[in-house]
Amino acid sequence: MISGLIFFLLLITPLVFLHELGHYLAARACGVRVEAFSVGFGKVLWQRTWRGTEWRISALPLGGYVKIAGEQLEEGEEPEPDSLFAKSPLERAFIAFAGPAVNLVLPILVLMVFLMGRGHTYTLPIIGSVNVGSAAANAGLKEGDRIVEIDGDAIKSWSDLSGHIAPAAGRSINLVVRRGSRLKRIVAEPDSRLVPDPLGGQTRRGMLGISANPRGPVVLTTSDCGLQDYDEVLEIDGREIGSFTELWRGLRGNRHLLKVRRYPPRKAGEPLDQAGAKTLEVTWVRPMDSTLGFVYPELTVEGVKEGSSAAEQGLQAGDRIESAGGLAIRTWSELNQVLENSDNMTANVRVRRGKEARTVSLSLKKRMVSAELRTEREIFEHGLITSSYIRSPQMETETLGIFSATAMATVQCYNFVGTMIEGLRRMVTGSVPLSQIGGPLMLYDIGKEASRSWDQFWWWLLLLSLNLGLMNLLPIPVLDGGLIMISLVEIIRRRPLSLEARARANQVGLILVLGLMSLAIINDVFRFLR
Known about the structure:
The chain is α+β, with helices and mostly antiparallel strands. The protein has four domains: 2-118 and 402-529, no CATH class; 129-211, PDZ domain (Pdz3 Domain); 220-295, Pdz3 Domain (Roll); 303-385, Pdz3 Domain (Roll), CATH 2.30.42. 37% of the residues lie in helices and 27% in strands. The chain has a four-stranded antiparallel beta sheet. A four-stranded antiparallel beta sheet has the order 14-13-15-16, with no helix packed on it. The chain has a four-stranded antiparallel beta sheet with strand order 20-19-21-22.
């Protein structure tokens, strides 16, 4: 608990200090006197006057404030020459904007330093797996293909690839792929698919049906061949194996020496225990029925959740999914995609149990689950307990100079802010519940998350800084954005608002802010009880 509080203070105090420092520097630049600058609230523990400002450290280190001369004017009172309302509306807007601007620029600087120090690591546009019956499979794309060009644009990373495919649903795109040492031109038409978005909703986008993650060379035995269930094959006759497809193609003869990683027993749905695994050599012998004696373990049910669609259909551990919606599938992600894009999220699924096969009607059902920071999110699940056996994609790291690092950091922060704005829009329209708003308890949980590692700390500092800057720019009186809005109104009207109008606007803004704070605290109470 103590570490969560300490790291929360380490996150919020410097962010608010820098925010208020932005206001202070802008005010001084405009010739406005700053009466006090306090780090923290409450009882003053230390103070010193410097350059006409009383600098304070107060007892409650939950942020801070600046007291600018002339912020509160009485009716009929003339502003002093060095007070806030003696300045032009444009200067007042500049002073108000300076605080949020610091919070928006700081993450760019943090990211820039990280990118320059560590380099930019990205996923190479090499296809690890191709979904059966997908647009990629129909176009002839294969595992191991490296996409180098789409519609004349060079493709450097997997994010470049996604950026071109997502908006291309239903129209043809021209790809250039490197297959071995040769370049091949392929025309594909991405399918339109519903996929989860970063805010917990669903969005429709173009998809080829490819993944950067190759299927791992893990096996589930069907007959005696020298292997055991969930053995991971590392080498065939001394040759390294990188995927299940390479394993499948590499067993040409009737006997091979395999180097395998054998894992200890585990519970349904748990990952393979890497720490407890043993590496050994086994001799694979082709079974008498001329099969390989094993299949890929995905699509074999490990368990079923009570009350789920899978339980209602009578599915049980050991059942193997063969097809969904009339389409042969190989991975759980393919099953999910078929269900997500079927009417009522329901499809006919062919299941094999031993030598018998039957067809069931499987559905995705909505369920609320716990998410990070004690929030809840909506998911759709079929109720099958599953495991995936994919390997990491191929990555590459490039060194960045100051200009390229700054440009990349700016783009990433711009995208983060865009996601935050979309989240606010969804809250206003009701598509995202207001229960996602958090208060002190959520901030404590963020501090606890930030205490796990310095990477987490800097990540949360970045997100909180962007959030603080964005929220303060909302056009609500008593916030910085409200003062900017009032200043713009005065510029348009070419005369100042009356003190009464400003007071009423501030009252409305205060009610909105207090209401938001109350909602956040109520949500925190429910999170704590939950």
